[in-house]
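Hey, resending since the last one bounced:
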Amino acid sequence: MGEVWKARDEKLDRDVAIKVLPEALFGDADLVARFEREAKALAALNHPGIAAIHSFEEVGGRHLLVQELLEGETLRQVLASGKLPIRKTLDYAVQIARALAAAHEKGVVHRDLKPENLFVTSDGRIKILDFGLAKLTKPEESAQTNLPTVSRGTEPGVVLGTLGYMSPEQVRGKPADARSDIFSFGAVLYEMLSGKRAFAGDSAADTMSAILKEDPPELAVTNQSMPPGLERIVRHCLEKKPEQRFHSAHDLAFDLEALSTLSAPGLAPPPALRARRLPSPALVMVALAALGLGVLGDRLLLRGRPVEPPLYQRLTFRRGAVNYARFAPDGHTIVYSAAWDGASRPQLYSTRMESPDSSRLTLPDRDVRSISKKGELLLLEVKRYVSGHTFSGTLSQAPISGNAARDLLEDVAAADWSPDGSSYAVVRAPEWHYRLEFPPGKVLYQTTGWISHPRVSPKGDAVAFFDHPFIGDDRGTVAVVDLKGTKKTLSPEWESEQGLAWSPGGDEVWYTATGAGNARSLYAVTLSGRQRRVGATPSGMTLQDISGDGRVLFIEENARQEIVGLAPGDARERNLSAFEWPFGPRLTPDGKTLLFSEAGQSAGSRYAVYLRRLDGSAAIQLGEGAAMALSPDGKWVLALLVGSTPTQLQLLPTGAGEPRRLPSNAVAQEDAAFFPDGKRILYVGREPGRPERSFVQDLEGGPARPATPEGVRARLLSPDGKSVVIASADGRLALLPLEAGPAQPIAGAEPWDVPLAWAEDGRSLFVSPSSAELVAARLFRIDAASGRRELWKEFTPGDSAGARYSRRAGISADGKTMVFLYRTSSSILYVAEGLR
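The structure tokens again:
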């Protein structure tokens, strides 16, 4: 990186370090600008584990960084004398993982983590150096395994990083993200424990081959006192496929911290264990799980007693989808809602653990959301689906033994009784604005994203819930809010999270989530944020409820989502999916090209964008993100970068070319479309502290311009690019001119219609109703001027058991080619005893 000087800051009377860019970079305005942007991002991190940046300066045409001055030595110098003690290794590893987590939250990735860039201060603290800056250094001719970093990490096929610590994707010249840092961390952790490099060959080619194809030797060979849990953590970091590693540095830090709470072989046991007194059960389970001993199926000897593995009892046996389930007050009766054998709406059933039979209740067809201690049900009748996993409807109340329900509230997405049954928490979901209320009318939390699975604590003093940043996407975090409205985030961000409940004692929140794909595992997290993994099943779990004596009610689900296509001349529908969970299908006006995204296990935590011609050719992966639109000339795809802060749009080339990020201007960007000229885009965005609205952005640069009033999002751009379809407060569609003029209602549109595409005449609109119907997909064509509304296509899959139309379809301008998004589910309801 050039020269580093010790200097004196005379204004603040302190010693600092000054890093000066090499002369070779002086004339490269692009690199200097990127250097400055990176410095600003790093300055915002403000974490004790990252070397602080004080300022970015230009003096006499030279650009330099002013940083804190550190006293100590690099980790490379520390390792010169061999491997480190396990206690010291764990101490250093936790510090590094915490610092990585803080940086990744800000969207900053190191890309060159190695012992040379880890500094051990004289008081034993670890600092990460050159965080995010190493990508600017120039390559040198070398055949050694300690290769220098190359210049531009955004260029496809360019190797970025130091070879002995690079991830497989870096070796292949692919983009490096947070998971690449986790791989590099694993290589450093391995070296601290063994005193040897994880990957080292006689030549650069040998080292690259080892990274791509080989696993390093077992740590137990070089370190006989190695705890099995620590070996497992290292292996998890060094998985060859990014999606199989820790999904975040937060999770990595959690596991390392849990491991450090219990003695391991070769370490002196703490006094409490020497006295044969065990710590709390929760702490024991955390530590044993970290050591690789507390997993399902293992038998442990604690106080001379074997700990039995959990027992699972199947409760349902029919074909279809179970939606929700809750324990009744007696702890043995279960009430659940399910759509069996192709039913279009969920129906209510009850069963008991002593019997395999289920009885249908005489109550209306609705979802059960909560049961009070008095036996009163909170039921939800879904009236409309917004997007993906989001919906709203009518909340009602009914006794278990009743045959009628009393309506309570409209625009509700979820609800849960208080412990005494005197009140309830409710998630209100008017269009695009979610808020959590407890009791109803008292707002504890509101968001521009959405809220799900609220559960009131056993003491009634807090509400736990899932906080999702994007409407329709079940990505998010576990959060808790007290009665004063103080919200706390308890977990890292998961790709998918569904199902949440309090432990009987109220000291933990249990939930099911996954870092990639849909196979969710069961986790528990304390109110201080200490997390542990409780259990898992091969196809994934969705937690429903926990009884007073600790029995766990959950759904095991084999689910997939499919894009079904119908083109002119097709005798039957075609499956156009790539893997198991495509979403957001968009069909070009000519009906020849399909654009969609994939959120399954194969796509990783940031999703993947696919393009598919409908001529029978295979789907082509273009890059990471969620697909938004295809340019008029077919050369570019607009995609949303999932997980960036703020969310940001990028352009992905459909042929040769490089991805290009668009300026966000501090606006969280979402749904987007190209204008007909291909030179501008229209996107939905949220400025900090402001309601959402739509913006127009020139692709050549310049500031974004507001296109709609605050609180109004564009749903569909007109063919001439002069107006947009919006929804009024009551959900009715209207046409709003972009230049000037009031919105004009679209005759024939019904409340909460989903606009899909304009017909080729430029005045007719294809829409899909946002009703509660689960199976049949219905597409209508409406004339925006006359209001004439006609059913254009009705589609039902051949096997409707467990099938649900996901309210997202695509249609060509001539109305002859259509794609439908369907979710299919085969669910089984279980109760588990012995999960701890």
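Residues 3-67 form a domain with the Phosphorylase Kinase; domain 1 fold (CATH 3.30.200.20).

Sorry for the duplicate.
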